[in-house]
């Protein structure tokens, strides 16, 4: 058993009695009330999920296993000479709650490297897509195609005991994460580089290897570490996390659950917003003939968009009520490495002008930027200008968090998810009775 799996096993054994006790002795403790507004309004704020892997405070932002993002970036070990930590270290932290040491990380790097080879049929499926297919569609399909490899399915059919479900789920998760950089970079080369590929380098960490296969020089590897780490998890209620959990709750394997999760991420209100930010900015750039607009000119573009009945992509959030710390981390990296890039200047002006406008507009509950407002700046600067591809990067990062959640879901025996629906008649009667 690998060091990570052994540690995880111990943590699971320690944790199980806590969940069992809560269920057995305190199962009927009331934790929330639900209003008609919440039922019709997308269940905002309804406390109905449990995860120990991350928690989102509306004003502070995300914590991974209790650590803020700046703490995660400070505490996790980094490859020699690099400023961004190993993504493998984050996976270790999310799974176990422990900050790993160098040797524990090196084991995980080796584990992923050993599992990175992609079966031939996955390349063939990607090759068979018609032109102009969206990279997220190809990404999701490639993941689902791998489902025939599921170790969980084999063990399930062999009659594995329920309490051991987490074990083959862990194996599936490791195998899938290890293969994602190859899948994503192959899709990139197929769509945008006439199929010209760079072979993977087994001596690199997962983010370094992805940057290498994308054919991008340093510090694109640093941008990749940063990207995968900040996208990994955002507690359990967001659409991608919730979808992954929901599908996995049927005992569908990791491949089916993550492919579904990727489909949820592919909507413009969720992960696709990072592509939409660049598409919107492209429109502004075209109108400006490439010149950086003044604040007044940018305000006019923002108002024109709102008055046309459109959203400002990259701004607003269902939970956050402050600037997203994932935006701030990327902004700080941009200020350090690419402050003079015109694309950064565009986004910097947006940071100044959009929040007051959204306040004046009076609809959005949170006028501040979310992570998607800044992601494309880094990609664009380092030469990944095909913005349709940006959500695939979100998908790789998010897989790290959601697979960790699914492994724990299995370990703690969380059941099939099945909330209750009501009819409009019923809601009207309840409203009258009040
Ligand atoms: N631009 C214009 N209008 C907005 C924006 C925005 N950026 N954000 C919210 N609103 C509107 C929203 O459409 C709604 O209008 P209506 O009453 O006409 O339906 C109203 O403000 C109230 O919405 P909220 O309660 O503030 O936001 P909600 O929780 O429903 O949705 C988002 C959250 C993130 C979907 C929303 O802010 C949005 O559409 N933002 C732009 C897209 C985006 O950046 N999505 C990425 C989010 C992060 N991620 O990666 O998932
Ligand atoms: C996410 O990272 O999933 C987004 O910020 C959306 C959310 O948390 O609702």
- Whole-Å distance between the termini? 58 Å
**Sheet with most strands:** 3 strands, antiparallel
**Strand order within the widest beta sheet:** 1-2-3
What's the order of the H and E elements?
Answer: HHEEEHHHHHHHHHHHHHHHHHH
Q: What is the count of β-strands?
A: 3
Classify the secondary structure makeup into a structural class: mainly alpha
* Fraction of residues in H or I helices: 55-70%
Q: What is the count of DSSP helices, taking H or I runs of 4+ residues?
A: 20
Which consecutive residue ranges, at least 5 long each, have pLDDT under 50?
A: none
| Shape annotation | globular
Describe this protein's structure.
The protein is built from 20 helices and three strands. It has a three-stranded antiparallel sheet. 60% of the residues lie in helices and 2% in strands. Strand 1 and strand 2 form a beta hairpin. Helix 10 (206-214) packs across helix 11, helix 11 packs across helix 19 and helix 16 runs parallel beside helix 18 (372-381). The model has no long low-confidence stretch (mean pLDDT 97). The chain has 434 residues and is mostly helical. The radius of gyration is 22 Å and the shape is globular. Bound molecules: nitromethyldethia coenzyme A and D-malate. Residues 269-271, 273, 306, 311-318, 363-366, 370, 372 line the site of nitromethyldethia coenzyme A.
């Amino acid at each position: 058993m690998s060091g990570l799996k052994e540690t995880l096993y111990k943590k699971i054994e320690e944790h199980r009695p806590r969940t069992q006790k809560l269920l057995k002795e305190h199962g009927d403790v009331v934790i929330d009330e639900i209003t008609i507004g919440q039922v019709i309004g997308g269940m905002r704020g309804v406390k109905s999920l449990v995860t120990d892997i991350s928690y989102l405070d509306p004003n502070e932002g995300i914590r991974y296993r209790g650590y803020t993002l700046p703490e995660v970036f400070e505490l996790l070990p980094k490859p020699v000479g690099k400023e961004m930590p190993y993504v493998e270290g984050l996976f270790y932290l999310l799974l176990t709650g422990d900050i790993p040491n160098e040797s524990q990380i090196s084991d995980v790097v080796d584990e992923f490297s050993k599992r990175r080879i992609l079966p031939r049929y996955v390349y063939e499926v990607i090759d068979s897509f018609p032109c102009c297919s969206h990279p997220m569609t190809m990404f999701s399909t490639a993941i689902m195609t791998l489902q025939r490899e599921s170790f969980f399915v084999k063990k399930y059919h062999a009659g594995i005991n329920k309490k051991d479900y987490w074990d083959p789920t862990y194996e599936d998760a490791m195998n899938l994460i290890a293969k994602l950089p190859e899948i994503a970079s192959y899709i990139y080369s197929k769509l945008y580089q006439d199929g010209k590929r760079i072979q993977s380098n087994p001596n690199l960490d997962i983010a370094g290897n992805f940057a290498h296969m994308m054919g991008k020089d340093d510090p694109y590897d640093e941008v990749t570490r940063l990207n995968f780490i900040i996208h990994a998890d955002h507690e359990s209620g967001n659409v991608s996390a919730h979808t992954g959990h929901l599908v996995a709750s049927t005992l569908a394997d990791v491949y089916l659950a993550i492919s579904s999760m990727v489909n949820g991420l592919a909507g413009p209100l969720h992960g696709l917003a990072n592509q939409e930010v660049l598409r919107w900015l492209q429109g502004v750039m075209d109108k400006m003939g490439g010149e950086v607009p003044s604040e007044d000119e940018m305000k006019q573009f923002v108002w024109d968009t709102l008055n046309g009945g459109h959203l400002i992509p990259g701004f607003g959030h269902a939970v956050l009520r402050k600037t997203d710390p994932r935006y701030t981390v990327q902004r700080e990296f941009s200020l350090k490495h690419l402050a003079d890039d015109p694309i950064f200047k565009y986004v910097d002006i947006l940071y100044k002008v959009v929040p007051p406008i959204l306040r004046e507009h009076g609809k959005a509950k949170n006028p501040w930027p979310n992570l998607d407002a800044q992601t494309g700046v880094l990609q664009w600067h380092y030469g990944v200008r095909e913005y349709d591809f940006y959500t695939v990067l979100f998908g790789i990062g998010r897989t790290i968090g959601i697979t960790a959640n699914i492994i724990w879901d299995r370990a703690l025996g969380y059941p099939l998810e099945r909330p209750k629906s009501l009819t409009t008649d019923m809601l009207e009667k309840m409203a009258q009775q009040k």
